[in-house]
Amino acid sequence: MPDKDDSSEQLLKKGEEFLKLYNMGRQFTEELLKENERLRFQLARAEGQGGAEHTGNLTKEIARLRERIQELEAEGRQIMEKYQQVEAENKDFASRYVEVEEQNNNLANLYVASYQLHSTLDFQEVLQIVIEIVINLVGSEAFAILLLDEKTNELRTLGHEGADVFPGIEALTAKVGEGIVGGVVKTGESYFVNQAPDEARVDLEHPLAVVPLKIKEHCIGVIAIFSLLKQKSSFSAVDYELFNLLAGQAATAIFASKLYSQSERKLSTIQSFLDLLTTSG
Length: 281
Hints:
Layout lengths: L3 H114 L5 H16 L1 E10 L4 E8 L11 E3 L3 H9 L3 E2 L16 E7 L2 E11 L8 H44 L1
Antiparallel strand pairs: 1-2, 1-6, 2-3, 4-5, 5-6
Helix pairs in contact: 1-2, 1-4, 2-4
């Protein structure tokens, strides 16, 4: 049987070992807690330093991005300005192209018309050609071609269009120097109204336009325009050029055909007279 003293001594020894282990555990725990605290502090410090550095980097990145955005916006504005400039140039080019194309077409038509005018010496055929030119090339609905009778110093209508729109246009006459039509013959200068056709007073005494038919400085008649076709709202810049060209070409053709007709009549009269003499002899 074990001795009582031996048992107490063993218990004391175990108690000392337990206390020693307890102290060692407590010390280890305290050191662990201290190390944990130190690590947490370092971690927080590192995180704080890392956050500030990240914030700084983020601020720099934002500033760089804003600067890049401003550069891109400036480039975008420049591109838009260039685009608008090119678009304006394209519109201007298209407008000029249409204008040049229209001029070319009109000049081509005028060339054909001029050829037609000088393709015959028959007076009535020439008048009909002039009428077709004024309708198709100028775009007139109602007009009159008046020629000067130098014996009476009076203008008489020899060709017309639009009698249903302007009754009496077929018998229109004018004295040189009287009214708008007679004034154009006297001065030799074209006449055009300043207002739009639908706003101007237009009647047989107040035409929209009067173009003199001139051979050099000698006026042999006029083309008086009273209304335009529905699809033509007003005269264009090209029309004024066409009027000038048409007036000269038409005047020459009319004058030449008139002289030819007169000479033909004279020759016919002389031939008849000669035939009469021959028959009588």
